[in-house]
Amino acid sequence: MSARLEAQFAFLNEADRLKSVMRATTLCDGSRRENSGEHSWHLALYALVLADQAAPGVDISRVIRMLLIHDLVEIDVGDVPIHSADGKAHSSTSVQEAESRAADRIFGLLPDDLAQDLRALWDEFEAAETPDAVFAKSLDRVQPVIANLQSGGGTWIEYNVTAEQLESRVGVKIAKGAPRLWDWVREKTRGYFR
């Protein structure tokens, strides 16, 4: 039992470092950039509150679990904004490989059963093929949109984001997992991009 607890706390202590990873997205009030720990917490709350936007059969408790761990790899890799390098940085092979190595290291701190469980959940989120992961990805894309709207454009200004880029990089993911939510968000963004 002692060795198991040591491993569990090693992981939890390592996860604390996520609070030091600054993201491109600001808080809704625009006062500062959010950190990845705050982002993960906020997404879990999004899942809880917006559960009615999920497709039938989506397990919100699994979605919350995914969202709580989805960005742990940023401890090693950092935040890679979706609009950086004109949208290419986020999907580059080198970033994906670095994130996979980070997942190996970070989840590898856990006892084997938990490591396998959480790594499988992270892999499922990354693949975005199951209904749970598709909904989780849609929330991961919508939260920064809302923050940018609330902060008067936030990082859209910094990255010169256009309505077309928002639609192609973000909208398609939101629409796939939460189509009614994307309809609402699209209407809100039209007001911004006019």
TrEMBL record:
<protein>
    <submittedName>
        <fullName>HD family hydrolase</fullName>
    </submittedName>
</protein>
<dbReference type="InterPro" id="IPR039356">
    <property type="entry name" value="YfbR/HDDC2"/>
</dbReference>
<dbReference type="Pfam" id="PF13023">
    <property type="entry name" value="HD_3"/>
</dbReference>
<dbReference type="GO" id="GO:0016787">
    <property type="term" value="F:hydrolase activity"/>
</dbReference>
<feature type="domain" description="HD">
    <location>
        <begin position="15"/>
        <end position="182"/>
    </location>
</feature>
<keyword id="KW-0378">Hydrolase</keyword>
<keyword id="KW-0479">Metal-binding</keyword>
<dbReference type="InterPro" id="IPR006674">
    <property type="entry name" value="HD_domain"/>
</dbReference>
